[in-house]
Specification:
With 204 residues, the protein is of the alpha+beta class. It contains four helices and eight strands, in the order βββαββααββαβ. The termini are far apart.
């Protein structure tokens, strides 16, 4: 019985962030949650991201699930380069290129904190309120954010303020503040009344 290879199909999709285009694949690119690369040095675990940084307009590469969100510098418009990037990604995957060597990714959880800094949150350290916040983010907010080519990570909770990190298309997006205040904050306040006063992004 002959096994037919499913052809790679990539389509480009605009995100709420005009600087970020989302390229969606019909194949899974990453098993783990996500990987973000801000320059070619950080992109070493990802042959695909490394090659994408050879495009002079590529500023940031975010890979999650079955899509790649690429942030560009203002030197070009997406209308002029999106097709070229889409064809490049399609050919890279068709030829059997590896998007990410996941065993080479540095787990953020294991970064050692500097003196006086809180370590990254481990599940054992998370209290009941934090655990509920994480559950709400995972169930209600992450899927919506992923549709726009981004990701959100819980970073901390103190004095009724929730700290999150915005990744991919969400990072630096003009509408990210609106997303934080109108979307995430309202959901958290609705589900955890009296426990959440504000949501802030630790990376702007």
């Amino acid at each position: 019985m002959e096994i037919k290879r499913v052809p790679v199909n990539i389509y480009a999709e605009m995100t709420p962030n005009p600087k970020v285009m989302k390229f969606v694949s019909n194949k899974l690119l990453l098993q783990t949650d996500s990987a973000e690369f801000r320059n070619i040095e950080e992109a070493k675990p990802s042959p695909l991201a490394t090659k994408l940084f050879h495009f002079p307009f590529v500023k940031n590469v975010f890979i999650s699930g079955n899509y790649i969100a690429i942030a560009k510098f203002d030197v070009v418009e997406w209308d002029d380069v999106a097709q070229e990037v889409r064809v490049f990604i399609t050919e890279f995957l068709t030829e059997g290129g590896v998007p990410v060597h996941e065993d080479q990714l540095k787990p953020t959880q294991e970064e050692k904190p500097e003196e006086g800094e809180d370590p990254m949150l481990n599940s054992e350290d998370i209290g009941e309120v934090e655990a509920r916040i994480v559950d709400i983010l995972e169930e209600y907010i992450k899927p919506a954010v992923a549709q726009d080519g981004g990701n959100i990570a819980f970073m901390g909770y103190k004095d009724k303020v929730v700290e999150v990190q915005l990744q991919g298309a969400c990072s630096g997006c003009p509408s990210s503040t609106m997303t934080l205040k109108n979307g995430i904050l309202s959901i958290l306040q609705k589900m955890l009344p009296t426990l959440v006063d504000d949501v802030v992004a630790v990376n702007g």
